[in-house]
Amino acid sequence: MKAFVLERYGKKRDLRSMALPTPELRDDEVLVEVHAAGVNQLDSKIRDGEFKLILPYRLPVVLGHDVAGVVVKAGSRARRFKVGDEVYARVDDLRIGTFAEFVPVRETSLALKPSNLSMEQAASIPLVGLTAWQALVGKAHLKKDEKVFIQAGSGGVGTFAIQLAKHLGATVATTASAANAALVKSLGADVVVDYKSQDFEEVLRDYDVVLHSQDGKTLEKSLRVLKRGGRLISISGPPDPEFGKAIEAPRFVQWVVRLLSAGVRRRARARGIGYSFLFMSPSGAQLQEISRLIEAGAIRPVIDRTFAFESTNEALAYVEAGRAKGKVVIKVK
Asked: What parts of the sequence cross the membrane (predicted)?
């Protein structure tokens, strides 16, 4: 099969197009013929070596986390899906590899593709959809009539999270450029802060939840827009001790993780705010819940550009530039 392979860590290093054997299946996996693959900032961060401590990949490795495609084979203990099923998933850490013609996926991470989406649309959903779901539903327990501030509303996670929050009945604020204000409003944003001309800290007050995805300076400001009892969920760090335990990191790594977030956790406690870090985990069951919302029309995919499989490196560079409105997808088949 054809695949795009990371041979060595390095910033902006191109992936190499190679012919590889079709991956071998484990008993609890199915083999998916890849029709489309989503591209994420996580892919470029892994390529750059930013996750070497917590995700120790053995190089060379095929990159890619999001997949939509068709089941072509099932392992001996995989019985939930049959050959010919149209499926989608965020594949498991340490079993990534969707920038390829075939990828093995653990069946518990897999879900049937929403019937009203194309393969390209479906491939845009898993990572950002599960991130938004696990942040707003799983960690924040966002409720009707609460106020949530979702940063970077025109990005991949932002475009999904705004729609999910509105479905849950929340009032939604977000940041976006003036050029993207109409887009985020069409998705359900009630308050749009133009980050180029406004400071969100001067506009927003007494919010219940912040979904943080930016830098450390923005994190500090986010603490100040939350009310006492509010919840700050960060998907960009710093990681908290619970994350270190969840990934069963070595003791030294857990100590480093605890140290990295000590300051923000202390300042959050002083304000009566809960701080937690989210590193999204695959879940076929949650994806099935997301499928129901998509099929009901509550959430729609937002795709900026679709690239040909041969242009995988160009797609990765486009995402890394940080200007995509919604998601970027590679059409493989």
From this structure: none
What would the pLDDT profile of 252-307 be if each residue is shown by its tens digit?
888 888 998 999 999 999 999 999 999 999 999 999 999 999 999 999 999 999 99
In angstroms, the CA 190 to CA 186 distance is 10
The contacts of residue 54 (CB under 8 Å, 6+ apart) are 247, 249, 253
Strand partners of residue 328: 39, 305
In percent, how much of the chain has pLDDT > 90? 91
Q: Where are the domains of the chain?
A: 2-124+301-331, 128-277
β-partners of residue 4 are: 17
284 near 29, Cβ under 8 Å?
no
CATH 3.40.50.720 holds for 128-277 = yes
Instruction: Considering the domain delimited by 2-124+301-331, tell me its CATH architecture.
Output: Alpha-Beta Complex (3.90)
Q: Answer yes or no: are the C-beta atoms of 117 and 301 closer than 8 Å.
A: yes
